[in-house]
Amino acid sequence: MELYSVIKNDRPGNELVWKSPNEDFKNNTQLIVMESEEALFVKDGIVVSTFEGGKYTLNTENYPFIEKLKNAMSDGVSAFNCKVYFVDKTHKMELFWGTDSPIQIRDYEYGFAVGVRARGSYNIEISDSKKFLIKLVGLNTVSYTEENVRDQFRTFFQSKIKLEIATVMKNCKYTILDMNTELENIANLVVNSLADKLDEYGVRLVDFYISDISIPEDDPNYRIINEAYAKAHVGKIETKVQGDDWGRIAAKELMKDIANNPNSGGMANTGAGIGMGLGAAGMFGNLANQMFAPAKETITPAPTENKTSRFAPKKESSEESIKCPNCGNDNSKGSAFCSKCGTKLVTEKYICKNCGKELPNDVVFCSQCGTKREG
Questions:
Q1: What Cα–Cα distance (Å) separates residue 285 from each residue in 258, 275, 278, 280, 326?
Q2: Which of 73, 88, 103 is the last residue of a domain?
Q3: What is the count of structural domains for the chain?
Q4: Is residue 25 a part of any domain in this protein?
Q5: How open is the CA angle 335-336-337, to the nearest 5 degrees?
């Protein structure tokens, strides 16, 4: 039996968990653990001790649990036997994920049912090495990689991600093509929904990113919704076309097709052909009305000024008339008495004796200095 005097991580790759191939060790063996990992000693299927980063001399005086690991004497040297696992505690960056099938969602704004896909990345760390080794990896495993983590959590991640994306898209009332503005909010919701489950396996989700939510190009409604979105944003169509507006647009397009078709035989022939069983005259009358009728939601023209005929009798402007203080009647400039009630009209202006401000005839106190009017 060969006894080893040093235990350290000699893993050949980038494993999350690696089991040392050596299981028989001398008393006073040196254990070397990197600061970014932990070493777990396993005997008879039980984790008997865990070591964090540092250098340790393993003997029964320093670590009494070694007494339980003693196996036999070899060439007069006390020996112990156990399995040693090294668990990587660093953050594992850029573990990529993507939905394996489209998420069926109805677009809130346009009403189209489409399938959307999402993709992104995440990074994790092993927060509890013992829990991770026992519940997820297993004590008969030689190594456990990042790919194993992705495979282990793929189905679980898929279900949670799809649920959160569908929930947000239903509640936010956005069009699907605007959903990329909500990536961070959706990612935070996914992290919260995954946290408890991952904790059961000693794993912590450090970061979770959604890089894209989009409609696959092979989706039947991909082209339709993209065209509707583009036209709505440049003002070529309204986002909701219903009722008379739809009839007006359809009529305009039909009339354009008829006019551009040299084989139509003219409007009369086309009308007669379509009119069989439909009432051509009534139909084309409606089409014409719809085509030339204004849309429901058009820009209201600016109100035009009412222009008076140049032959109409001219009226005196209010600036050239004198308003009666008693009945409010407008009197011609220069009138001494109201033509309606006979009240004397004051035409001269009053000047404040204190500050010299010109005041209206009907004021009692000066608005500038407050002096009471005389007379």
A1: 15, 12, 12, 8, 61
A2: 88
A3: 3
A4: yes
A5: 95
Its domain, for residue 164, covers: 92-214
Mean pLDDT, the chain, whole residue set: 74
Whole-angstrom Cα distance, residue 319 to residue 330?
10
Q: Are strands 83-88 and 322-323 parallel, antiparallel or unpaired?
A: unpaired
| Tens of pLDDT, residues 182-234 | 888 888 888 888 888 899 999 998 888 888 888 877 777 777 777 776 776 55
HEC letters along the chain: CCCEEEECCCCCCCCCEEECCCCEEEEEEEEEECCCEEEEEEECCEEEEEECCEEEEECCCCCHHHHHHEEEEECCEEEEECEEEEEECCCEEEEEEECCCCEEEECCCCCCEEEEEEEEEEEEEECCHHHHHHHHHCCCCCEECHHHHHHHHHHHHHHHHHHHHHHHHHHHCCCHHHHHHHHHHHHHHHHHHHHHHHHCCCEEEEEEEEEEEECCCCCCCHHHHHHHHHHHHCCCCCCCCCHHHHHHHHHHHHHHHHHHCCCCCHHHHHHHHHCCCCCHHHHHHHHHHHHHCCCCCCCCCCCCCCCCCCCCCCCCCHHHCEECCCCCCEECCCCCECCCCCCECCCCCEECCCCCCEECCCCCECCCCCCECCC
User: Is residue 14's pLDDT more than 80?
Assistant: no
pLDDT at 175: 75
Strands 54-58 and 4-7 come out as unpaired
Give the Cα-Cα-Cα angle 139, 124, 95 (nearest 5 degrees).
100
Domain finish residue from 193, 214, 235? 214
Summarised one tens digit per residue, pLDDT across range 107-137 is: 777 777 778 888 998 888 899 999 999 998 9
Helix 280-292 to helix 266-274 angle, to the nearest 10 degrees?
A: 120
